[in-house]
Amino acid sequence: MLIPLLVFDVALVAWSLHLMEKAYEKKEFSLMLAGFLVASAAAATMVVYFLMGHCISYLLQVS
């Protein structure tokens, strides 16, 4: 399950870099904000994945 999630996150980061590059070229703040939001969504996806992995492994050990 980690491999598809990593591929998805790499795609999100690549998209955010593309958005930020276009924002720098066009001097648009909205594209820069969109790129930042996409990058933060990729980071949040990884954080939630690792938090849930630890939580589920803990719950399986308890029962």
Features:
single chain, 63 residues, 2 helices, 94% helix, elongated
Describe what this molecule looks like in 3D:
The chain has 63 residues and is an all-alpha fold. It has one domain. It contains 2 helices and no strands. The chain has helices spanning 2-26, 29-62. Helix 1 (2-26) runs antiparallel to helix 2.
pLDDT below 50 for ≥5 consecutive residues: which ranges? none
Helicity range = over 70%
Q: Class by helix and strand content? A: mainly alpha
Report the principal-axis shape: elongated
- Topology pattern, helix = H, strand = E: HH
- Main beta sheet strand tally, sense and closure: none
How many domains make up the 3D coordinates? 1
How many β strands by DSSP? 0
Mean pLDDT: 89
The rounded Rg comes to 16 Å
Percent of sequence in beta strands:
under 5%
